[in-house]
Amino acid sequence: MAVTDDPAVSVCFVVTVDGIELGSFNTCEGLGCEVVLEQREEGGNNTHLWQLPTRLKYPNIKLSRPLTRDTEKVAKWFASMTTGIRRRTAHIEARTGDGRKVAQWGLLEVVPVRWTGPSFNPESPKVAIETIEIAHHGYVMEPES
């Protein structure tokens, strides 16, 4: 197996929204899509139902990380929604520990859904984690650079 074909075992996810980098996240959940099927029965055909594809459905994406200075960038993005929601284009780039790009996903018409800050409890000292959740209307593929 060539070096470039090694699986990405340890990655971080760098997020940009309209060219503004929100920083890197440790976890990323929800990248995917689903074909919604409509079932139809055909009169006289008792052997099966027709499965007709209707549309694509995209789950929300959740990204988590320990609190960093980039948390302010996320807060500014969420605060910008108070003056009106403007859907944006975002990119999530998976990178290895040494910064090499493994994969990239472009997201269409992104809006922030939720920001969850850390819970502080002196009896249980843990790393302060933040999570953002974003919704989108599909993927955009860009030409390789």
Q: Could you explain how this protein is built, in words?
A:
The protein is mainly beta. The chain has a single domain, classed as Hcp1-like (Pnp Oxidase, Chain A, Roll), CATH 2.30.110. Helices cover 6% and strands 49% of the residues. It contains one helix and ten strands; from the N terminus they run E-E-E-E-E-E-H-E-E-E-E. The protein has one helix at residues 71-79, and strands at 11-17, 20-25, 27-29, 34-40, 50-57, 61-66, 88-96, 101-116, 129-135, 139-140. The strands form two sheets. Strands 1, 2, 3, 6, 7, 8, 9 and 10 form an eight-stranded antiparallel β-sheet that branches. A two-stranded antiparallel ribbon has the order 4-5. Strand 7 and strand 8 (101-116) form a beta hairpin. The radius of gyration is 20 Å and the shape is elongated. The two termini are 24 Å apart. The model has no long low-confidence stretch (mean pLDDT 87).
